[in-house]
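Our consortium's second objective concerns turning raw sequence data into structural hypotheses that experimental partners can test. To show how far this objective has progressed, the report includes one record in full. It was chosen at random from the queue rather than selected for favorable results. The single chain below, 95 residues long, was entered without modification.
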Amino acid sequence: MLFFTPHCNVSNKNTNRLQHMKESLKNSDLVGLGMSNCCAIEIIDDKYRLLTEDASNYNIESYGIKTYWKNNNYIEKYIDKSDKFKSLADLLIKN
């Protein structure tokens, strides 16, 4: 299973999406995927790749992030922006 957060870099006075993802994953075995503005994930069969756009006009860098809890530690890893397809199974495991 997966916890997906689009526009994860968006925060306002009521919501911090990255913090919400962290708290939501705390007591679960789920892996969280967050996509910033100007970033999407393309999944075909058992492969994926990130699709990113230049987001400099928004003063951000587009990114994808993989998050999960392991041994009571919160892990955040940026997802490789390569345009080559990679194994979806590798993305969805806690490693």
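The partners drew two points from this record. The longest strand covers residues 64-70. The longest helix spans residues 17-25. Both points have been shared with the crystallography group to help prioritize constructs.
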